[in-house]
Amino acid sequence: MHNWEKRSKEHQKEYDRFLKRADKKMILKRQQELHEEATAAVDCLACANCCKGYSPRFKTPDIKRISRSMKMKESTFIETYLRLDEDGDYVVKSSPCPFLGADNYCQIYEDRPSDCARFPYTDEDVLFKRPKITLKNSTFCPIVFRVMERFLEVE
Predict the structure, then answer these.
(1) Which residues form the domain of 107?
(2) Are 65 and 24 in a shared domain?
């Protein structure tokens, strides 16, 4: 999709309006189909914008699971890789994510944080329940952009 980032920025107001007044039943009915269509069209490994510029929240179960798989103490894992953000959530200290390989593969994929496993939330009610997150995600994730554009088409 040519120049989608620019188009996403231009369409933020339309996305916001749509998310605020859309028929939730219509969204839920079409959501899975649009999610599958968008994920089939976008190669996440060619993009990895989510891992390059943003951090998921590392919740307690994520920290326990990842530190165990890396054979590290939880405190050492936190000290090495994480910081507390303004919301009090653990996020990675640096961008890109320290677990992103040069080939855009996640080095902890099997144990990745739940936020990563669920991203980009286009198959969940997060899409309309947390519109600020959806709007932000549409500016860096081509899957979210595609889903939002398709919703605008059918509105």
Answers:
(1) 57-117
(2) no
* pLDDT tens by residue, 91-136: 999 999 999 999 999 999 999 999 999 999 999 999 999 999 999 9
Q: What are the pLDDT digits (tens) for 9-57? A: 999 999 999 999 988 898 889 999 999 999 999 999 999 999 999 999 9
Residue 131: cis peptide before it, omega within 30 degrees of 0: no
CA distance 16 to 2: 22
CB 117 within 8 A of CB 6: no
Pseudo-torsion of CA 81, 87, 89, 92, nearest 10°? Answer: -20
Residues 31 and 64 in one domain: no
For the chain, what is the domain count? 2
61: how many CB neighbours lie within 10 A of its CB? 10
- Give the SS3 label for residue 73: coil
My answer on whether 43 and 83 are in the same domain is: no
Are 113 and 123 in a shared domain? no
